[in-house]
Amino acid sequence: MRGADTVAELVRRQWGDQRIGLRDEHHTLTHHQVAAGAAARAALLVDLMPPVPGGEPHLGILLDNTPEYPLWLSAAALAGAAVAGINPTRRGAELARDIRHTACRVLVTQRTHLPLLDGLPLPGVRILVTDTDAYRELLAPYAGARPGDATLGPVRPDSRFLLSFTSGSTGAPKAALCSQGRLAAAGAALVHFGVGRDDVHYVCMPMFHGNAVIADWAPALTAGAGVALRARFSASRFLPDVRRFGATYFTYVGRAVQYLLATPPAPDDRTHPLRLGFGTEAGAVDAARFRERFGVPLVEGYGSSEGGAAIQRTPDTPTGAIGRAAPGDDLAVIDAETGEVCAPARFSPTGRLLNASEAVGELVNRGRSPFEGYWRNPEAEAARLRGGWYWTGDLFYRDADGFLYFAGRTDDRLRVDSENLAAAMIEHILARWERVAGVAVYAIPDPVAGDQVMAALALRDGEAFDPAAFAAFLAAQADLGTKMPPRFVRVMRELPLTATNKIHRVALRQAAFRCEDPVWWRPTPGAPYEPLTPAATSALLTEYTTHGHTPP
Predict the structure, then answer these.
(1) pLDDT for 170-179, tens place per residue?
(2) What share of residues in the chain are helix, strand, coil (percent, to 5)?
(3) One-letter-per-residue 3-state SS of 464-481
(4) Who's near 119: CB < 8 A, 6+ residues apart?
């Protein structure tokens, strides 16, 4: 299906289409009903947002993945309003800050989230609670509206549409701007994966995050495909949902894939209509395991809420690589300290990266960037665009043929004995150990200088941490550099997650080795792993103090 200049145009195309367009456990709507419902909500929104001095056409959505979420996204597109996806795991002053910062005049929520709003200072914000009689009565007079009947002004490709909070590790989240034109273009780009009118997109990632909206909902809207919703991600409900809804496509983050792989194997694991997953940070090992078990390829992509750089996957993309720069793009891997282009990656015959210290750098877009800025945050914009380039904040390396490999976030870089390491590369190696269901690698301060490597391991059901077996596994990995083995290993039942199902590395780094979970360590490099006792912890803390450094 041909592309469109605006999301509003894509919504209008659904009018008259009587195929199933939107489903969840309790509702089934045709594409036409979606367009009609969006038109009704758009008309209501226009009446709720009369022009006022300084008033922005912004609404917040504080919902689980219910049909109301895509209906209000569609309504905002028709009306020419912008949506701020509000994270329901935020609390108190932080939650109020997100709503106020994005200048929301209307907040759409549900009864289960009302306690989050109790006592919050939200002056001038109209709150709509979707699962109430009052909401249904408020919406009823607009039932006859048609797409385009009510707008807040001209709807153009540059009309502001999304204010997507980033999941940065420090400071208050930044709201990245996305126009209707950019989202429509993103949807059209992902349609090239082969999704079409007869596909069903399973949306199980939270819709307040770009993964679900940009990579799942938008391409479904572009292709005229159906959408099936899961209120919150559930590994146990994944395959039953896929079979029930006839889902053929889904998006993921790496940790969600690990959860799916941790479910008990069943004889009918390959009996389903699913044919493609698209996402980030699954890693080559988990992607191979997923395909072997479920028969579904996972296509690794690269993107962010900011949209400042895009990598194009081609049929000849090597295993482990994301792809190349799209035609006309000028992407480079840059040493942030020197501003110079990093050396091409060199590999051993077994695929080990031989020159990580000189090859890994920050991915930078030196050409025209689709980045549209942050809402009311010029300092963050300037940092992102320093020197006239767009700095992604992500670590990559590039082979001699120009293929780009993800190596982690800049916040996840480690410097061990003056050697730069990327946490993601170590994680991909540790994930091969058959006893683990999930791995997180992160830096903790070295008592003298630089960092030490710490790993959190979530073991598979029924497994116990065997220090000798783990050390033997490490010794057998040909691509594990001498500085990569973790000095500290935290054994957990499951890894802590953010609201977007990503590993909560900030919490892990803050706890370091002072946590309630069992921690094993090597007192000296290469020594056997042994339990970190209170006496050993005390000695470590003394070592930090002796060198004048703050312990983790």
Answers:
(1) 457 899 999 9
(2) 30, 25, 45
(3) CCCHHHHHHHHHCCCCCC
(4) none
Q: Residue 278 in 3-state DSSP?
A: strand
Cβ–Cβ < 8 Å for 431, 283: yes
The whole-angstrom separation of Cα 199 and Cα 344 is 40
Q: How far apart are CA 474 and CA 435, in angstroms?
A: 13
State the CB neighbour count (10 A cutoff) for residue 485.
Answer: 22
Q: How far is CA 323 from the centre of its chain?
A: 19
Q: Return the C-alpha torsion angle 160, 162, 163, 164, nearest 10.
A: -150
> What is the pTM for the complete model shown?
0.82
End-to-end Cα spacing for the chain:
54
Residues 6+ apart with CB under 8 A from 340: 334
Segment among 145-154, 406-415, 474-483, 501-510 with least mean pLDDT: 406-415
> Rounded to the nearest 5°, which phi and psi values hold at 546?
-60, -35
Question: Does residue 520 surpass a pLDDT of 70?
Answer: yes
**Beta strands 249-253 and 200-203, pairing class:** parallel
Q: Is 193 helix (H, G, I), strand (E, B) or coil?
A: coil
Structure-block tokens of residue 93: 């002053």
CB 63 within 8 A of CB 105: no
Distance of CA 482 to the CA centre of its chain: 31
Q: Report residue 131 as tokens.
A: 């699962």
* pLDDT confidence of residue 169: 44
Helix (H), strand (E) counts: the chain? 18, 26
Count of other CB atoms within 10 angstroms of residue 525 = 10
**545 vs 165, more confident:** 165
CA dist., res. 453 & res. 45, Å (int): 51
Where would I find the beta strands (DSSP E) of 132-217?
160-165, 175-179, 200-203
E strands, 37-104, where? 58-62, 82-85
Instruction: Write out the two tokens for 529.
Output: 């792993």
Q: What is the model's pLDDT at position 167?
A: 61
Q: Which helix (H) or strand (E) holds 451?
A: strand 451-459
Per-residue pLDDT reduced to its tens digit, 375-403: 999 999 999 999 999 999 888 999 999 99
CA distance 349 to 478: 10
State the Cα–Cα distance between residues 496 and 508, nearest whole angstrom. Answer: 8
